[in-house]
Design brief:
Layout lengths: L13 H8 L20 H30 L4 H15 L1 E2 L2 H4 L9 H7 L1 E2 L1 H14 L7 E9 L6 E9 L8 E3 L7 E2 L6 E8 L2 E3 L15 H13 L3
Helix pairs in contact: 2-3, 2-5, 3-6
Pfam families: Peptidase_C93 (PF06035)
InterPro entries: TAT_signal, Transglutaminase-like_Cys_pept
Organism: Vreelandella songnenensis
Length: 234
């Protein structure tokens, strides 16, 4: 198993980490709050989807609601598998510049489902929020930024996957839009992790503790959280 995918996953030096990820951060607070089940508002979600994406978007949202009902209380492996398949099948990978006219836009699950298009961050965020809504503990889920090697070449590209950790020290399972099957991290030798985060923190540089210094602050995630509140997710 690659050491970089354990509970203290990231072996990059601080300088390497900042050089790679510094563009993602702003000098403000994390702005990350755990989604609250009590704030989940299906009717407002329906209204938001209808207004933004019409009947086609609403139909996908109803499929999502039906999946939530079907999977509540089921075995976590079944939940992981079906949530992974749901978004991999219903969202077509398209670059942000084409969908949003921006180089890097993190979509909410509603935006991703309504558009039917998105990139790696959009898949990962949608799976994360859905699994949390199914009561999978947030501490077991992390969105992981990686460098993904393309084919047999040494060419890499920035990529995001969702990791599920059965325990803090467990090897994570990787939910990805590139490889459709859920696989242990040890089998994903094409991925080199840089940092990971969830609703409660951010991990990098080999530390087991979440970073709370001014550089560990994700502006795009904060913006997604704000839009999800408006739409009715949290």
């Amino acid at each position: 198993m690659p050491a970089s995918f354990t509970s203290s996953p990231f072996k990059l030096s601080r300088r390497q980490f900042l050089a790679t990820a510094g563009a993602l951060f702003l000098g403000a607070g994390l702005g990350i709050h755990s989604p609250s089940a009590a704030a989940f508002d299906p009717q407002r979600l329906r209204q938001s989807m209808q207004q933004a994406y019409g009947q086609a978007g609403l139909a996908v949202l109803e499929e999502w609601f039906a999946m939530l009902e079907r999977l509540r209380g089921q075995d976590v492996q079944m939940q992981l598998r079906e949530v992974n398949d749901f978004f991999n099948r219903r969202i077509r990978w398209v670059d942000d510049i084409v969908v949003w006219g921006q180089e890097d836009y993190w979509a909410t699950p509603l935006e991703a489902m309504g558009n039917g298009r998105g990139d790696c961050e959009d898949y990962s965020i949608a799976k994360y929020i859905t699994l949390k809504q199914l009561s999978v503990p947030g501490e077991r889920l992390r969105m992981i930024y990686v460098r993904a090697r393309i084919g047999r070449s040494q060419i890499t590209q920035a990529h995001m996957v969702l990791g599920y950790y059965a325990s803090p020290s467990a090897e994570p399972l990787v939910l990805d839009n590139i490889v459709p099957s859920i696989t242990p991290a040890s089998q994903r030798t094409d991925l080199d992790p840089l940092f990971s985060f969830n609703s409660d923190g951010l991990w990098a540089g080999g530390s087991a503790e979440s970073r709370a210094d001014p550089l560990a602050r994700l502006s795009r995630w904060r913006n997604v959280i704000d839009r999800m509140k408006t739409q009715g997710f949290i």
